[in-house]
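Researcher: Here's the sequence for the chain we discussed earlier.
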Amino acid sequence: MRLELKLALIGALSKIVIFFILLILLHKVIDRQALQHTDRALIKMKEKTMANVAKIGINSFLNIEKDSAFASYNILKDEYITIDLNTNKGEGKTVFSEEARIIEDEEFDYRILNYSFDVDNQHYILEIGKNIQLINALNRTMKNISISIILLVLLSTILFDIGINKYLLYPLNRMIIPKLKTITNPETYDYSELGSSTSDFVYLNNALNELMHKVTAILKNQKKFTADVSHELFTPISIMQSKLENLLTSGNLPEQFVSNVMDQQNHLNRLQQIIKALLLIARIENDQFSKNETVVVREVVEEIILNIEDRAEMKNITIENQINPSDLLPNVNKSLLYILIFNLVSNAIKYNNEGGWIHISAFTTGCNFCIEISDNGIGIDKDQIESVFDRFKRADPASGEGHGLGLSIVSSIVRFHNASIDVKSVKGEGSVFKIQFNVKEC
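Model: Thanks. This is the structure I predict for it:
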């Protein structure tokens, strides 16, 4: 996951947690404030009522003839006021409660203020109520408004953080990472300075530049070493081969030593082939080849078949080139592609049965151009498939054929082209090697 996305997710998650905490606290605050607001309104109504009692007298409120009580309800039953005789003395006491009241055969829940007072040595109780449903409706409205505001602030801050993260990480995303992605050869690396006010990114860019300078120097030394090894090893081997040939052609060599000299010559030839293979692998892994050619794959395969058909004929093996003449493979090295397919076909012949077949095909799937070499040979053991590309690893060590470097060279060429290779094999039925070259962006 990219750093920019991680920062955005962490910021969003932290804000969501804060949002839920604020929401819980806000609900409690709103409930508390709504209750306090209701109580203050009830107290104001009580004070106003008591002022009227003091002004016009208690008898103006009471129906003396009936029950010496007063009751007033608004139309929607949202509020009511009652004054009634009180048998208990308790002047000046104000009590709040939440109770149900039946008004005109309907039951309502109210927040109630009870206030005891005395007038003319008579005890009265004032009761003022506000409908709780009205209070709850106001609470819900306030809560919905607060949630909407918090959500809007949350979304705005998340979008703001994403924008800030993009701005702060711009040098990393648009300069440093692209430089790393386009590295194919340290000698072509972009060593430009990073124009950024963020010292960490400047330090990272400078460290990468310094590292690539060191890698370039190491690779130059390695290439020089490869060239030196090539010269220093081949020269004495060539001299030894020349001397052995002179011994064989001189006619002075006793008969009993001829076979020994020929064996030594074979060992030198084998050593020379191994050195060539190892040097080829080293050159491939050191990026000493270009890969800017567009190749007609069928023509390469035809050339391989022409050069290897004598070996196939010795085992009566049929090789079929099933590649379309119009199939083109861009951005490759033709020589290395030749070696790649040649080694796979050579292995297919080596480990095939008398009268077997080898099919070479190509096709496009998605973004990849695939080359497939299949045969009906002896196959590979399941537990050996993962190690077939290891150096000096041979499917049949007892045969004495090869050096176990052919598939290692194949693996190096595949990696050099940023391709992939897949092996499927069934012991006794044959093998399929599929190479996938990425030919376009997906």
